[in-house]
Amino acid sequence: MGALPVFRWRLAPDGYATRRQLRALGLRPGGQDVAAQLERPRRRRGPLVAHLYRIDLAKPVRPMTPARWAALAKANAARRICPTCRRDAGYVIPPSLGMCAPCAFPEPSPELRSA
């Protein structure tokens, strides 16, 4: 197995696309291996690398079935439930807090405020 071809930023030949570009075309990699790499040089760090896939081997995106829609809705609803108070927060709970805002930043009790 040889090394992957490496192209400089914005100089990849036609017939290659990143995952995002494939998705914009309504395609997916479909199990194919990475065909090439795209490298964008940076000053003080290593280059940014993007994997490229062949467009001719890409497959169409699978359609969403009712079961997949239901699973997605259930997963999104679970992201709104606070693990501390078990209430629906009304928004997606940030992973940095791990709980809803009222649980993360409770109001001080009235006895402490008057002191």
Write the SSE topology:
Elements: E1 6-8, E2 16-17, H1 19-24, E3 27-28, E4 36-40, E5 48-54, E6 59-60, H2 66-78, H3 101-104, H4 110-114
Parallel strand pairs: 1-4
Antiparallel strand pairs: 2-5, 3-6, 4-5
Give a quick summary of the entry.
The chain has 115 residues and is α+β, with helices and mostly antiparallel strands. It has helices spanning 19-24, 66-78, 101-104, 110-114, and strands at residues 6-8, 16-17, 27-28, 36-40, 48-54, 59-60. A four-stranded mixed beta sheet has the order 1-4-5-2.
Query: What order do the strands of the largest sheet run in, or round the barrel if closed?
Result: 1-4-5-2
Regarding quaternary structure, what we see is single chain
Figure out the total of helices.
Answer: 4
Which geometry do the CA atoms define?
elongated
Alpha carbon gap, first and last residue = 73 Å
Largest sheet: 4 strands, mixed
Q: Give the proportion of residues in helices.
A: 10-25%
Report mean pLDDT, rounded to a whole number.
91
- Strand proportion, as a percent range, falls in 15-25%
Radius of gyration: 23 Å
Q: In total, how many beta strands?
A: 6
Name the poorly predicted regions. none
Q: Name the structural class.
A: alpha+beta
The string of secondary-structure elements, in order, is: EEHEEEEHHH
